[in-house]
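Hi P.,

Sorry for the delay on this. The queue was packed all week, but I finally got your sequence through. Input first:
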Amino acid sequence: MGACSTVEPLEALFEYQTRRPAHLAPLDAPALSPFERALLVANGTVTQFIESYTGQAVEVVRLEQETCRAADASWLEPEGDEAVIQRRVFLRGVDNGAEYVRAHSLLAADRLPPTVRQGLDAQGSGLGRLMQRARLETFRELMWFGGVPHDGGVCPTRAYRVWHGGRPLMLINEVLLPACRLEGAA
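Then the structure:
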């Protein structure tokens, strides 16, 4: 038998963990369910990941989407008064109605391919699937994670950037809701 390998600490996978927003509580990663830990570092479409794990369809429910100016989008490295799309959604199981993830995204509007911009206007379109359909070559950079208050407890949250063409295209913040803990215990 060979030597045992060790898993890299979760903190080491997040490029800006030491600069995470002050409102985020520290998170005890070993206390998270396996499903939550896997979601924190998932590097693909979160919707597909949840569907694969739970064995049911997951719908993207858009709560808000508006185009504004890049005033609070420094992580996207905007040029001038570049347009930014702010989008809030949640991912919900179609069969069980469980809410798995709430997400807030900032997207550099003028850097998005036309097919992705058009897809954003359709209810139920997730960013990951839109990028797949557009065959958009991207790189995801894990930024930070922590905990946020939710219904008397603390839920894990993470942020990551999606890069395209050497520039940040999206900043996505996701909160893993209690359904992720329950699914992880299955």
